[in-house]
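Q: Given only this backbone (149 positions), what sequence would you predict?
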């Protein structure tokens, strides 16, 4: 076909824009809750064991005692985020959030500064108005109606 020849419907449909697939769109095999709870128990046991080593293995050198909880927490986080289903879903969610955050069009610096000053001035005026209204109401209630000095 040449550039001037109209295309058929099939060709146009083939060229239709395909939706962008995100990491969250991919199916993560749902593990049973019992399996995830077992994995969480393993992670908690690793962290608890490493903390136990820190407090009770006094014969170890101090650098090994300090590294034990660090190692336990890192292994526990790896178990939670890479072995459990909800950890993988959380990672996919954070990845998608960062992608969407990069798409945000931020205002220019002057506009942002001007809007910030406007908000600060408005909040100050509103706080002064609320203070004045509260003072007038408490004066009316305590001094005029109840005559309490």
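A: Predicted residues:
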């Amino acid at each position: 076909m040449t550039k001037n020849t109209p295309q058929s419907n099939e060709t146009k449909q083939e060229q239709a824009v395909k939706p962008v697939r995100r990491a969250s769109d991919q199916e993560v095999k749902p593990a049973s809750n019992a399996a995830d709870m077992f994995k969480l128990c393993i992670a908690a046991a690793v962290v608890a064991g490493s903390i136990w080593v820190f407090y009770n293995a006094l014969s170890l050198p101090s650098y090994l005692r300090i590294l034990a909880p660090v190692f336990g927490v890192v292994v526990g986080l790896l178990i939670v985020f890479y072995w459990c289903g909800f950890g993988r879903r959380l990672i996919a969610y954070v990845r998608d959030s960062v992608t969407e955050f990069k798409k945000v069009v931020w205002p220019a610096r002057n506009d942002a500064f001007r809007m910030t000053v406007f908000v600060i001035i408005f909040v100050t005026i509103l706080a002064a108005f609320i203070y004045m209204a509260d003072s007038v109401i408490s004066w009316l209630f305590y001094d005029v109606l109840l005559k309490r000095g």
